[in-house]
Structure formats: structure tokens, C-alpha cells
Amino acid sequence: MDRKQEQRKTRSNGQRTRQRLLANAVALWSQHGRLGVSVSAVAERAGTTRRTVYHHFPTQELLLEETERFVETELAALAGGNSSYLTEPYRLVAGLAADNPELIRSVLLGLLHEDPRDNALFQNAVRYWSDPATAGILGADVPAEHAAAITLAMWLAAILVVSTGKDGAERRREADRFAVSYERLLSEGILTTGRSRKS
Questions:
Q1: How far, CA to CA in Å, does 6 sit from each of 12, 18, 20, 54, 108?
Q2: What pLDDT, in 10s, does the model give residues 148-198?
């Protein structure tokens, strides 16, 4: 292997490690809130060392900033049907709603306060639903824009439902139940004519 190939491999491995650390930080955030995202907790959950975490995120503040940015990026990807770094995409939103509702609220408020044509979340969701709309999979001639809005409105529904829990454990149970309902509704026909389409 020549030097350039070696450098590309090293960069690729570094990027994968960074993504894995961020995915674990998001999981901690969804389970324990922002305060649960520490260098030690991320290292332990990712099965690596604090040194590795500090290599990618030299300060606790940077780790939190990058985790929040990663959440927003992953939510935009999730809205577009891509959940490559997320093991349980339906549970992510419900889990964040249970343990850190302010993050989901801030994302949703961003949708309301900016032009939807400039919002990556909404545009990714529209792109995701465009193919099924063209193929006639969406029921009752639902336009892709409406399907996108309904899908994202389910995130608000997650906040509402999960907030009915009296304590953290009950909110977590509601989040798990809502994640199942969310997936079932979207894949079994709230928008489609019967052929499965997940978001």
C-alpha cells in the first residue's frame, strides 16, 4: 500500500471513529439528556478510551457542540429516509422527546421560523416522499410536501405523548410505545396505499 492509500485509509478510519463516537453521544443524550454526554460516558459506551474521544473532541464543550450538530444532521438525514448511523431511528426522536424535549422543540421551532424551502429537514423529507408520490404509492394523491409535513409533525406528537409520563421512567416507556406506533403508522398506511414505505 502506498503512502497516499495509507493516508486515505487513516482518514477514513478516523471519520468512522468520529461518527461512532457521535452516534454514541446521541444515544447518551437521548437516554440521559445533555448532562449525560461526557467524555467518560461516550468512551465507555463506544468501547474505547477517553484519549480517543479527546483526540476527536479536545474539550467537553466541543463534544457537546458537535453532538448537537450531529443530532440536527442526523435528524435531517432521518427525515430523508437515511439513518445509517442510527440503530433505532424511530426511537431516536421519541427518546429525545422523553429525556431532552428541548432539543426536538428547538429543531421543530426552526421549521416554523424559517422558510421551509431553506430548511434541510423539510427538504430532505420532501425528497424522500417524492419518489413514492410519483409512483402512486402515497394514498389519495397526497403530495410529497404534505407527506413530509405529516412525517415531521409526528415528532411534535412524540413530544406531546411522551410528556404525559409522570416521571423519567414513565416518559421512557411512553417513548418506546410511541416509537412502535410511529413506525407502524408510517409503514402500514397512514400515507401509503398499502405498500410499505418507512421514514
A1: 10, 18, 21, 23, 42
A2: 888 888 888 888 888 888 888 898 889 889 888 888 877 776 666 554 444
Q: Report the Cα 196 to chain-centroid distance in Å.
A: 21
**3-state DSSP of the chain:** CCHHHHHHHHHHHHHHHHHHHHHHHHHHHHHHCHHHCCHHHHHHHHCCCHHHHHHHCCCHHHHHHHHHHHHHHHHHHHHCCCCCCCCCHHHHHHHHHHHCHHHHHHHHHHHHHCCHHHCHHHHHHHHHHHHHHHHCCEHHHCCHHHHHHHHHHHHHHHHHHHCCCCCHHHHHHHHHHHHHHHHHHHHCCCCECCCCCCC
**pTM as predicted:** 0.63
